[in-house]
# Entry
Amino acid sequence: MTVFLIMPSRIMARGIEGVFHDLGEFKVEGIVSDISSREEAMLKNMSVDAIIVDPAVFAHSSRGNVKHFISEYTDAPVVAFPSMLMDDESARQYDAVLNLYDSPAEIIHKLRTAVSAPKDNASADGSELSSREKDILICVAKGLINKEIADLYNISIHTVITHRRNITRKTGIKTVAGLTVYALLNNLIDPSSVE
# Structure
């Protein structure tokens, strides 16, 4: 099985690669230290069984959306290997979480479990919007632009765009008018609040 590593620490990346080499079960197909447009292109064109990411790669405000961000490029399970403390809510977004103190056998077991788990196809099963995605949807339905939404929630415009992409993927609706109707039909907004 193959994995792709997104880690700012070359020491951690090489350590994981060494564990996989010693056990012979997983092979590292690539290692990047950050996410730039070049690395995004690599993700789009790579077919791997799992992505292992250190959430420290992403800005603090966007760490809650790492899996959603990566799922735009691949269907492979996303496994966290945090170099710093990670709260439970952040950990829940990943298919598995590796720990610095896990034994090689535990790491392999967690990866096998993540890879063999059924795929979460959000667009097929109509998965529920997260509370933040609902907040963003309400703002879009009320006519706010990305910058206004970013300022309102103190997040980056990139994070707003990621939320909007996820909303579109989950609902299958691409237009503002369609999203407004969706928000109205799901009682997310009051009809009098729409201009």
Observations:
- Residues 2-120 form a domain with the Rossmann fold fold (CATH 3.40.50.2300).
